[in-house]
# Entry
Amino acid sequence: MKKEIHPEYQEAVIKCACGSELRTRSTAKEMHVNTCAHCHPFFTGKAKYIDTEGRVERFQKRYAKFMNK
# Structure
């Protein structure tokens, strides 16, 4: 490895908008994120599922004439 061309690897803090902090190592000293594993709806179990019922049936009905050929 060449000396003096690599960025300094140091302790870093990742701060979330919810107030959660994660300590790690990085070339950046501090990072800010909007969501993390503590506040993201998928990980907290509060995810809202979009109602997709009927989409497959609508697709099959629309393209049935192409599938029959």
Observations:
- The CA atoms of residues 39 and 45 lie 10 Å apart.
